[in-house]
Amino acid sequence: MSSPQLNRVLGLRLVIVVVIGNILGSGVYKKVAPMAAELHSSGWILICWLLGGIITLLGALSNAEVAGLLADTGGEYAYYKKIYNRFFAFLFGWSLFAVIQTAAISSLAYVFAQSFNSIIPLPPLLASLADFSIGGVFYPFADFNVKLTAIVLIALLTWLNTKGIKTGAGVSTGILALVFVGIFTIIAFGLTNAHNPLVSTLQTKTNTGAPVTLSNIFTGMLSAFWAYQGWASIGYIGGEIKDAKATIPKGIAIGVLIIIALYLLVNATYLSLLPVAELEQIYKAGNKIAAVEAVRSFWGSNGALFISTLILITTLGCTNASILSGCRPYFAMAREGMFFPKVAQLNQANVPANSLLYQGIWASLLVLSGTFDQLTDMIIFAVFIYYGATTLGVFILRKKMPDAPRPYKVWGYPVVPAIMVVFCAGLVINTTFARPREAAIGLVLMLTGVPMYAWFVRKQQTAVPEKTY
């Protein structure tokens, strides 16, 4: 008797929804402030948003060729077995579980809880333990009322996604429709009430008089890349997409192009409403959201309520999309004996419910571990290592499988993928020096995969003869 299989039920429309749903989260509302603190120039902020979008698109186009050739449940985990070897594939899958996907879920849920708290103030919880720390780095009980709300959200959405992938994708569709209406409302009203002409946002002169360095640009783009992060998650559910090898490349390209246009418009609106110096103060305050203050500037307290509600809805949608797609690689790993055995089981709705559960538990623990910006910088450091590895895979697969049918070939080969590989290396090196604590935490969590790989292989060898791939 054959084991239960995933259902191929998602067409192009829902693929685009999942791509956009995984990208469009908290970054569009929060990240203009840390970029202002780093770059001190409205023009350079927009340039970094554009450069971040272009680099993301180059990576997406390169990823699309690999996905079109090798599409399967697990995304890069499935690809890396053919491009590199089983160990590197496992290290990626473990990195997803340890930091990349689970920390993304945590940070999104955290911003949801912050927005909820700004609308309906939450009573303080365990305030006497707020100063308790682990090594002076982690403060698990600081803002515990917000963190507990984030954990409750993760639990509820994890439960919802055990009901079936179409249920989860349907929820994302409805939420995205509300989000787009809200964001375009901000753009329309914001630009008509702007304090500065839109053209003034293109000035590249800094308010400090100091020049913008290449390191400033890379560090500023960390913020932009968090906002663009998530497009590759569509590959994780390749086993549930109709005609995946043709549909995934189209869905990725269309989704990323829509997001680039949206981000440029909405960030130009923020910069027309608020001077860079004020955005810098918002960043230093630590407990303010740039989009809320921008809308408050022309719409007052009602505007602040509107944008807080919109952030609530947006982060709800992105958290849901991240939970939906994120658990599939662990399921694929477990089916090969390279993850905890229970994760390989499907429930009655043909959904990897145990994988969802494990993911939800670890994401909840990460909520307690750090602040929003600490989590996001850690994610970007880790994820760009693998973006570079996937793009390098375009060159490797062209040599390994030259005659294999490719529904999509990356535009501008070999220049486009080469630019992406070099950029990924540069960003990882710069982050190591500019954000050493976040880079170190991310690297340590990733490298816990080395002993885990040895443990799973040993366990697999004692249970059954080892499979070859």
From TrEMBL:
UniProt membrane topology term: Multi-pass membrane protein
Keywords, comma-separated and alphabetical: Membrane, Transmembrane, Transmembrane helix
Cellular component annotations (GO), alphabetically ordered: membrane
A molecular-function term among this protein's GO annotations: L-amino acid transmembrane transporter activity
Gene3D superfamilies: Amino acid/polyamine transporter I (1.20.1740.10)
Main localization category: membrane
InterPro entries with a match to the protein in the record: AA/rel_permease1, AminoAcid_Transporter
Compartments (UniProt record): Membrane
Membrane spanning residue stretches: 12-29, 41-61, 87-112, 132-157, 169-192, 212-231, 252-273, 305-331, 351-372, 378-398, 410-433, 439-457
PANTHER family: AMINO ACID TRANSPORTER (PTHR11785), SOBREMESA, ISOFORM B (PTHR11785:SF512)
UniProt name for this protein: Amino acid permease
Species name: Hymenobacter jejuensis
